[in-house]
Amino acid sequence: MRSLPELGLVCLESTHMSEHNLLSIKSLSVSFGGLKALTKVDLDLNKNEVVGLIGPNGAGKTTFFNALSGLVDVSSGTLEINGKSHKWPKPYELIDLGIARTLQGVGLFPELTVLENVMIGANKTAKSGLIASALGFSGSDELRLKQRSMIALERVYAASLADEKAGSLPYPVTKRIAIARALVSEPKILLLDEPAGGLGAQDIEWMNSLIQNLASQCSVILVEHHMDVVMSVCNRLYVLNFGEVIASGDVETVRRDPAVVEAYLGVSH
Ligand SMILES: Nc1ncnc2c1ncn2[C@@H]1O[C@H](COP(=O)(O)OP(=O)(O)O)[C@@H](O)[C@H]1O
Ligand SMILES: [Mg+2]
Questions:
Q1: What is the model's pTM?
Q2: Using an 8 Å Cβ cutoff, are 129 and 217 in contact?
Q3: Residue 183 C-alpha to ligand 2 middle, in angstroms?
Q4: Model pLDDT for residues 11-31, shown as the tens digit of each residue
Q5: Ligand 1 pocket, 62 CB below 6 A?
Q6: What is the pLDDT of residues 136-191, one digit of tens each?
Q7: Cα–Cα distances in angstroms (integers) from residue 117 to residues 92, 110, 112, 261, in the given order
Q8: Which of 2.60.120.260, 3.40.50.300, 2.60.120.340, 3.30.565.10 is the CATH number of 21-98+187-269?
Q9: Fewer C-beta within 10 Å: the chain N or C terminus?
């Protein structure tokens, strides 16, 4: 069989990639004292793509999200969004950059209602969301924010729970509400940190189809230990081990990569 370069396809492919490129991170490094948590990590995310960021515990996955959301200092590396170079953002700049994230765990306020928890995900002064405007919603800032929050809750199939206290709900439901809180700012880039963590088989199925639906409206970077979820929802994968990308590419190529097998199973054969 002839290789892609022989067929002249490399050029076509790279043009395609750059047209749709939403996020490009080059050579990102983060250190905690003497510990190198991330070393020269490159990652690209295209429009409407779900990219998996996987690797053993302590590999640096959450640190990657923390760097991209301004929660840790970046030692070096560049960030481009929509082909435009940006400084590494502060946490309060994320919404304007079109980035939202969930936390590993859930992080809802148990005494607040579901709706109030979701409203926290937007800043009140932000202009009315595009979806809410398209639907003709208007009114006070607070009313618009409530309407946007209800739309976000509908996207995670939890609108009927809006008035419940978050602390009264079962864990799997709170995981979906945490996603609604991230969606309320109508992000272009959604960072999901272990959305299926702690869920049983049936709720994992739910989460699976939810993430697939999300990709029609935004791009997702997914950190997840459940390999069945990763394999079924991700378009491409990056594998981190001890802070370095040891493999990347389409799901099938990566799962057969010997370095990945070794990192996960701790064997070299
Ligand atoms: N705020 C921090 N201060 C010091 N060390 C940290 C901090 N956050 C993470 N680390 C360390 O960085 C490494 C990567 O952690 P993390 O990004 O949480 O891994 P993962 O999410 O892949 O399990 C680990 O060795 C962890 O102990
Ligand atoms: Mg983590």
A1: 0.86
A2: no
A3: 21
A4: 333 334 455 899 999 999 999
A5: yes
A6: 545 567 888 899 999 999 999 999 999 999 999 999 999 999 999 999 989 999 99
A7: 17, 9, 6, 40
A8: 3.40.50.300
A9: N
CB of 238 closer than 6 A to ligand 1?
A: no
The ranges assigned to domains in the chain are 21-98+187-269, 106-185
* 29, 39, 63, 239: residue to mutate for ligand 1 pocket, most atoms within 8 A of CB: 63
CA distance readout (Å), 165 to 112, 127, 199 = 6, 27, 20
The residues, ordered by sequence, that sit 6+ positions from 118 with a Cβ below 8 Å of its Cβ are: 149, 152, 153, 177, 180, 181, 184
Interval between CA 60 and ligand 2 midpoint (Å): 7
Q: Which amino acid is located at 50 in the chain?
A: V
